[in-house]
Amino acid sequence: MGKLILCSSVIAKNPYCFPMTKTKVYSIEEVCYYIRNNIYMMQEEVFDRGFADWIRGELGMEETADKLDRMREDHNNLKDIVVTLCCSCDYYTESEINELIVIMDQTQNVPMRGRQKIKADTYLKSGSLERARQEYERILKSRIC
Fold it and tell me: Is 4 a residue whose pLDDT tops 70?
C-alpha cells in the first residue's frame, strides 16, 4: 500500500485485491485505510460476497462478514457498509469516520459523469493507465450519445 499501517488485528495469509485499483490488503486496518483514500470511487459493488467471504475466512471476522451479507441482501447503502467496516476495528476515530460520512453525503449526488471522472482519475493516479484511458473514453462517448 505504500505507507506503514499499524495493524492490531489478524493479518491474512491471502490478500483481498480490490478490483478497481488492483490494491491488495491483508488486514481490516488496511481495508479501512483503502476506503478512506478511495472514498470518491467507492461503490456498493466493491463489497460483494467475495469480500465478505474474505473477511470471514482470512480475518476470522464472522460477525462483520455476517453483517455485510445481511446489508447486501437488504440493499443497504454504501454509507452503512463503510461505517460497519470502519467501526469493526479501532483504526479511525469517531470524528474521522464522521468525516467519511460527510464526504459520502456530498458525493452521493454527484452526477454519474462526475463519478466516472473520479474513477478514471483514480485509475490514473494508481498507475492503471489503460483502465484510465478506457474510462475517459467511456465518459467522452457517453457525452456524444
Answer: no
Q: Specify the DSSP element, H or E, that contains 17.
A: strand 16-18
What pLDDT shows up at residue 29? Answer: 95
Sign of CA dihedral 87, 89, 94, 97: negative
Helix (H, G, I), strand (E, B) or coil at 50: helix
- Residue 94 makes CB contacts below 8 A (sequence gap 6+) with none
Dist. CA 129–CA 84, nearest whole Å: 32
Host H or E run for residue 16? strand 16-18
Band (pLDDT 50/70/90 cuts) for residue 50 is very high
Sign of CA dihedral 82, 84, 90, 94: positive
Contact 71, 81 (CB under 8 A): yes
Closest by alpha carbon to 79, among 104, 103, 112, 96?
104
Confidence of residue 86 (pLDDT cuts 50, 70, 90): very high
| Radius of gyration of the chain measured on its C-alpha atoms | 16
